[in-house]
Amino acid sequence: MSPQTASSQEHDPPKVRANRNEWLLVTFTATTNVADAVTRVALPLLAVQLTHSPALIALVAVLLTLPWLLTALHVGVFVDRKNRRTLMFGAETARMIAIGVLLVCYMTDLVSLPLIYVVAIALGVAEVVAMTSGASIIPSAIPKARWQTAGARITAVEYLCNGFVGAPIGGVLVAAGFGIALGTTSVIYVLGAVLLLLLVGNFRVEPTRERRSMNLEIKDGLTFLWRQKLLRTMALLIAVMAGCWAAWLAVIPAFAIEGPLHLSERQYGLLLTCLGAGGVLGTVVVGPINRLLGRRWSMFVDIIGSFALVATPVVVPAAPSSAIVVGIGAFLAGLGGTMWTVNARVIYQTLVPNDMLGRFSAASRLVGWGTAPIAAAIAGVLATTTNYRIAFGVFAVICVVLVIPFLRVVTAAAVAEVDKPEPEETPAEPAAAEPAVEPAR
Q1: Among the four residues 57, 66, 93, 369, which has the most C-beta atoms within 10 Å?
Q2: pTM above 0.90, yes or no
Q3: CA 267 to CA 196: how far, in whole Å?
């Protein structure tokens, strides 16, 4: 059995249930990403209130992404063994608790850099669980014919709420007070948890073979990724681009507020909005560009955008007006990031068997996002010991190199394999659906 047919042997959910699940997942993504965006604005700016060191401020971004490096593989095994909706619910609850603790400490004047770092780690671990489970739950909740459309909608609200809406909301809420920002975030996480309980379906994957030790199942995920040349190369390309994004996100708070741009918290939120604006446009144009140029060139836009993201701070003069150019670079990055994400999700969900999706997603994200904390740390050190232009410029040069492996491996023929029609199969009886609210175990 080919991976392509294996991944789609989970029979499509009934239409009514599938439509309900699709919109619940889209709405959940919207609420959670607004909360995440507010948190990503609030935590670094809260650190700015306690220190002027670019390295210590950048450490917040490092710790938010470090769990991908440390926990992704083990989380992937749990995602393939456990109920994926339950794992997402647990992650949402953990986020709510972490922000709640920070809120209480802030209101009682007990907030400190170590506390912010601990909260960042907790949020990072929750993100690993939520994103790995969320990427793997779609084949069980939505028919394959809707994967690209649902993926585009989910990606659209990710960018819309995480950048275009969430970032300026975060800036406004922080300007109103950190207590208001953190309290709002906690309430939104509660809403996200409630939405997950409304999903219906069978979100536990039946194993195709006997369960083995965790280490062996981790090895299976890594081996599958490594043997698939296209998937392996895509993961390595994302490793570099995610590193560039992490470097930008780690240094940009100090660069924009304490550094050459001299922006206010609200203006900083608007700068981050450019990422979301580009991302939203990307979800609109990805379908037409796929049809016009093909998936390959649609995905290539991400390399161009990532280069623009880290290159624009290098060339702009030290003045507040330069924020416009930096914003254009962020806009292009958001545009390319969306077009890559929508296409990559379809490729993964088509080529990877359903009972391997958790481990594959974790392994690919470990490779792809494991560079983020390292890149963020390097960028913070470079910004502190040299200057901002060097910190950004190093990653701009690295981005240029990505063109070579992309053109050699991500060929039109390789990507076209994804769109091959599947052989028709005789429908089997659908698996029994879980209740809307799962009993506690």
Answers
A1: 57
A2: no
A3: 34
Q: Which of 277, 267, 265 is nearest to 305 (CA)?
A: 277
Q: How many residues does the chain have?
A: 441
pLDDT tens sequence across 107-129: 999 999 999 999 999 999 998 88
CA nearest neighbour of 85 among 257, 232, 236, 203 = 203
How far is the C-alpha of 280 from the C-alpha of 156, rounded, in Å?
Answer: 5
> At CA 227, angle to CA 223 and CA 229, rounded to 5?
140
First to last CA, the chain: 35
Per-domain residue ranges for the chain? 3-202+214-419
d(CA 3, CA 123): 33
Q: Can you tell me the distance from the alpha carbon of 29 to that of 143, in angstroms, rounded to the nearest whole number?
A: 18
Q: For the chain, give me the number of helices (H) and strands (E)?
A: 18, 0
Of all residues in the chain, what percent are helix, strand and coil, respectively (each to 5)? 80, 0, 20
Burial state string for 217-249 with b = 16 or more CB within 10 A and e = fewer than 16? bbebbbebbeebebbbbbbbbbbbbbbbbbbbb
**What is each CA distance from 316 to 248, 264, 273, 306, in whole angstroms?**
15, 19, 19, 17
Q: Taking the CA atoms of the chain, what radius of gyration do you get in angstroms?
A: 21
The CB density around residue 5, as the number of other CB atoms within 10 Å, is 13
Domain over 3-202+214-419 is classified CATH 1.20.1250.20: yes
Report yes or no: 259 and 316 within 8 Å, Cβ to Cβ.
no
12: three-class secondary structure by DSSP: coil
